[in-house]
Amino acid sequence: MIPKIGLLLIVASFQLLEAAGGKPNIVFLLVDDLGWGDFGCYGAKFNETPNIDKLAADGMRFSNAYSAATVCSPSRAAILSGCYPARLHLTDWIAGHNQPTAKLAIPDWKMKLDHERVLLPEALKMGGYSTAFFGKWHLMPHGRPDMKEHFPTHHGFDINIGGREWAQPKGPGQYFSPFGMPNLDDGKPGDYLTDKLTEAAIGFLDQTKRDTPFLLYFSYYTVHTPLMAPPALVAKYTAKAKDFKNDKNEFLNPARAGMIESLDASIGRIVAKLEEMGIAENTVIILTGDNGGDDPGTTGGLRDFKGWSHEGAVREPLIAKWPGKIARGSACDGMVIGTDFYPTLLEIAGLDPLPDQHKDGISIAPLLTGAKTALERKILYWHYPHYHRTKPYGAIRDGDWKLIEFFEDGRLELFDLKSDPYERKDLAEMKPGMAAELLAKLRKWRQDVDAQMPTPNPRHTSGKDGGNRNGKPAGK
Ligand SMILES: [Ca+2]
Questions:
Q1: CA of 75 to the centre of ligand 1 (A)
Q2: How far is CA 116 from CA 90, 205, 217, 355, 365, in A?
Q3: Are residues 298 and 354 in the same domain?
């Protein structure tokens, strides 16, 4: 690997030759615990998301976009590094669950990002971008807000508003003032976190220099628990729930629906601000989530949800808008995963790929512009050597086929997502040849990325296999 400092010098020398003007601005919107069925444009009838639906109507909506993990930290690390969590050895939410007597002992994984890697914001910064972070970080040692070297500002962001070690708002008022977050105005009693972060993001836009392109990385704390929304919105959805005909088993939670309406309003304000500034035409907006929703009613019918091992845990909404480049009202069913954003945004910014970085990502720019309807890459992987709601597992999607391997006992599940998108029919026993072929690919990949595996646990207590934190059986 080229030493990071050498890479910085090489890239910087190229960038000095190139004027920054004309490069598109980038607004990356990452929603926490977002279900595949949470937006109107993805089928939601209870949640109301007019601004997000408009964003999709003005751009492209993906139907096979994935997070690289079923929980927060590894998914976020994959976006920022362009590498699979398995390669980073950052495979669980920080700080993870402690299952001391489970059948398997989890590996010694990393609870922080390596400084040796060149992350997406660092690469864009080298390319002349100003970089700003808003919201949830959750990529540093648990309970160590003193470790400033792990904050966003030490990983390529010029400014950090709100990011710290927290997985969720933990200030005195949680989603309401006071917030207790870095560089975020605590406001007055009753002020709501999503609104205050949006104000800060708009304040950043106000201060941007027109000749400097920017990355606005807005990592919403919403809609992670605790489910808390402004009282007027809770009242609105409480009333709506009373007469709601719930044909598709949506999650009728007034607080969560209110959180999503606040999110939608935030996105509407940012889009309006870009238009008001006259820079909307030269700004790419990407909206996605870090892992599935935290309730079975959020996934649009996909099996399972956050922290499990099936599609509902990792399939995410993905909407992209880039006027003049992405066709209005377009749709794409090509497979995309969180590691792809890094090389995609480099290409959009007119920057060369970086040697030794973003190893597991592929630019989806050809999908966005319509040059291609699918990437040559047909295989995606997941690796979770931990206990959560699921037991430790690995998974591979190869075209329409998906195989899940559970590490405790080697049990396999095989699904044909084309005919069975909701993973109702396990074909592992009916199609042992296909299962074996996919398993071989999955194991080969684990070797290639040096994935950490769980090991037999000498402290395992017979009869207490650790299970999962909710005591539910694996699977739906
Ligand atoms: Ca999350």
A1: 8
A2: 14, 30, 21, 13, 27
A3: yes
